[in-house]
Design a protein that fits this description.
The structure holds two protein chains of two kinds.
Chain A (H helix, E strand, L loop, with lengths): L18 H7 L2 H15 L2 E4 L5 E7 H9 L4 E2 L7 E7 H10 L4 E4 L2 E2 L2 H11 L3 H12 L4 E4 L7 E4 L10 E8 L13 H13 L3 E8 L15 E10 L18 H34 L1
Parallel strand pairs in A: 1-5, 9-10
Antiparallel strand pairs in A: 1-2, 2-4, 3-4, 5-6, 7-8, 8-9, 10-11
Chain B lengths: L1 H8 L15 H9 L7 H12 L3 E4 L34 H9 L9 E6 L15 E5 L7 H10 L5 E7 L2 E9 L7
Classes of the chains: A alpha+beta, B alpha+beta.
Organism (chain B): Aegilops tauschii subsp. strangulata (Goatgrass)
Protein name (chain B): tRNA-splicing endonuclease subunit Sen54 N-terminal domain-containing protein
GO molecular function (chain A): nucleic acid binding; tRNA-intron lyase activity
């Protein structure tokens, strides 16, 4: 089942600029490809923090623009002329290193091998293997992936740059399989699942569950990434009241119907209250000015 | 069973036991609680929710009409304790015989409980057509991925909705398998 039902919500530009067209004219794949070749050419080295969760990368201004356009990392405020520093998250570092193969990574001034980098990232975060697999799965389809923690999710996925479009999905990653050990996976109890559903709905995103499963695969090396399989599923709430006609579109998570009606009523009431109040006030004003 | 209960609750139906005495709501609710005839509170509440909205709901494993039943299991002698030979409109006498089928039927959480059609005044029990969707009742934990796949494969084609009942609050969820498109 292809995911085009709800459709992307493009933001509105100044002077009615058409962001959807802008995005179409500059596909994410070409922005990322440009970034890749630019970084590769400069043989840049990102510095991993010794906690292993973030890295910093210094780039020239042209590369900074590309990093921003491709929505990787966060630009750091810095007065250094001609150079821009970026902070990259664990998945982003590994994607640039392993996925796009356009940077190297060092830690304590020593260049890290692929295995060493993997070990560092895994020891910093137990769930790194499945998080990275989910991240690279979406990125390789040219979705923009950012942290979703502020929405109670692991990631949020955008159809293009976050400045142009609202994110459609709140992504929760669920590991499946003995290899992932006794991790407390998400969505194992109703309270958690319905909480995630509610949280994503309140910010108008569809809850996308990426289950990362492994058959027989040791997670100790990045070679396991090829063996991991990502299953995509959405969890949506179905409102019986709204779907009594034929060809009903499943809605994004909506608040409980009672609340919805209440909210609607309140909004309508307030709207008329404002109109009424305004009318009264303006009449008073006119009255006062006349006399 | 559910239809009778539903109608009884709405005061539209009076159940008579085999002594021709009225069966009160207390007894009816008692039967639901005991899980008699494979009917549970959750199932009943889901049924009720949809019926009140006008959907056409039937038990998945029970045919719409008796004309579809050919097995010899069906008897006409009511030795069931809530046998009602009185029918008021929709509570047809077929319920009697259907209870026989329901007795002892085990309802697995990941097996559809209901088949549902959209509200349709032209609905015919003799030729109901394909259900608009099937309803599975959910248990105490969210369904794991492999169980979802198994149910989907068994009833391929017909959309599945999953019903979770919490203190009278009936929620329907869809766990749709999707494929995110590769973007340009």
């Amino acid at each position: 089942q292809l995911m085009d039902k709800a459709g992307p919500r493009w933001k509105k530009g100044k002077d009615g600029k058409d962001f959807a067209a802008l995005a179409a004219a500059h596909p994410m794949s070409s922005i990322v490809a440009e970034l890749q070749s630019s970084l590769k050419g400069s043989k840049l080295v990102a510095t991993l923090s010794n906690q292993g969760r973030d890295a910093t990368l210094g780039v020239n201004l042209q590369q900074a623009t590309l990093l921003n356009r491709a929505a990787f990392g966060r630009a750091l405020d810095n007065a250094e002329a001609g150079k821009q520093w970026f902070q990259l998250g664990a998945e982003e570092v590994f994607y640039l290193y392993h996925g796009l193969k356009c940077i190297s990574v060092s830690e304590s001034k020593k260049l890290l091998s692929e295995g060493e980098l993997w070990d560092h990232l895994c020891s910093a975060s137990e769930s790194f293997p499945e998080m990275y697999k989910a991240y690279s799965h979406l990125r390789s389809k040219n979705w923009v992936v950012r942290s979703g923690l502020q929405y109670g999710a692991d990631f949020v996925a955008y159809r293009h740059h976050p400045a142009l479009v609202h994110s459609e999905f709140a992504v929760v990653v669920v590991p499946e399989g003995v290899e992932f050990g006794g991790r407390c996976g998400r969505l194992k109890v109703w309270s958690d699942l319905l909480c995630a559903l509610r949280a994503s709905g309140s910010v108008a995103k569809t809850l996308l569950v990426l289950t990362v499963s492994s058959s027989i695969c040791e997670l100790s090396s990045p070679d396991c990434l090829e063996q991991l399989v990502v299953h995509e599923r959405t969890i949506t709430r179905w409102i019986a009241q709204q779907c009594r006609e034929q060809r009903c579109e499943p809605s994004r998570e909506e608040p409980n119907n009672e609340e919805q009606d209440h909210t609607r009523e309140t909004v309508v009431f307030n709207y008329w209250g404002v109109i009424l109040g305004f009318t009264v006030l303006s009449s008073l004003l006119v009255y006062k000015l006349r006399f | 069973i559910k239809l009778r209960r539903f109608l009884a609750e709405r005061g539209a139906l009076v159940l008579l036991d085999d002594k021709d005495e009225t069966v009160g709501m207390e007894e009816i609710y008692g039967k639901i609680a005991r899980g008699s005839y494979g009917c549970s509170w959750d199932a009943f509440q889901a049924y009720r929710h949809l019926k009140l909205l006008g959907y056409i709901v039937g038990r998945y494993d029970v045919p719409w009409t008796m004309k579809q039943i050919r097995s010899g299991d069906v008897t006409n002698s009511p030795d069931s304790t809530d046998g009602s030979s009185q029918s008021f409109g929709k509570a047809n006498g077929a319920c009697n015989d259907i209870t026989k089928l329901l007795k002892g039927m085990r309802i697995d959480g990941m097996y559809p409980t209901f088949k549902v059609h959209l509200p349709n005044s032209k609905f015919k029990k003799s030729s109901p057509g394909v259900p608009s969707f099937l309803v599975c009742l959910l248990r105490d934990k969210p369904p794991p991925r492999d169980e979802l796949e198994m149910v989907e494969n068994k009833f391929g084609g017909i959309p599945l909705k999953f019903c979770q009942v919490d203190n009278g609050r009936v929620s329907f969820l869809s766990f749709d398998k999707v494929t995110l498109p590769s973007l340009p």
